[in-house]
Amino acid sequence: MNYFLRLGAYLLHPLLMPLLGTLLYFVVTPRYVETELLQSRLVAVAIITICIPIVVFFLLRNLGTIKSIHLENVHERRVPLAIQCGLLVLIIKLVFDPMDSPEMYFFFMGILFSAMSALILAFLKFRISLHQMGIAGVTMFLIIVSVHFKINMLIWICIFFIGNGWVASSRLHTNSHTYPELIGGFFIGFMPQLLLVPLWL
C-alpha cells in the first residue's frame, strides 16, 4: 500500500497534467485536426510544460535556489512558479489560437490563473498542493468538454475523480501536505476552469 500511494504522486505529477489534458482533448474532440498539426502541438506542449521545467529545475538546484523537486519550502516555490507562468503564457501566445482552438486556449488560461494563484499564495507563505491543483484542473476541463461536445465521458471523469482521491491520499500518506493545503489546491485548480466556461462554452 505504501508503494501504491507513493506511486500516485509520480504518475499524476503536476508537470504531466497539461499534456494529459491536451492529449485527452484531441482524443475525444469531434473536430477534425490534421495529424501534423496535432503532433506539432503535442510536442510543443510536452517541450514547454515538461522538458523545459525539468532543465530549469536542475539549473535552479545547481544555483542553490531550490533543494529538491518536492519544493517543500514555500520560498522555493516562487521562482519555479514564476517561470511556469511565463511558459504558460508562451503556450497561450504561440501554440493555441483562441479562434482556432478555444477549448485548449482557455484550458491553458485556466492553468495560468491557477499557477498565478499558487504563486501569490507562495508569497503569502501559504503552500498549496500543486499535485491536487493539477489533477483537479484537468478533471474540471473534462467535465466541461463532455458538456460542450455532448460526449459521454463519464468513465474518464470517474477515473480522474478517483485520481484526485489517489493524489490526496498519497500526499497525506507521505506527510507532504495538510488537509487545508489539499483543499486549497483542489479549488485553485478547479475554479479557474469553471469560471472561464462562459467565455467559450
TrEMBL record:
The chain crosses the membrane at residues 7-28, 40-60, 81-99, 105-124, 136-162, 182-200. It comes from the Bacteria. Keywords: Membrane, Transmembrane, Transmembrane helix. This is PAP2 superfamily protein. It comes from Marinirhabdus gelatinilytica.
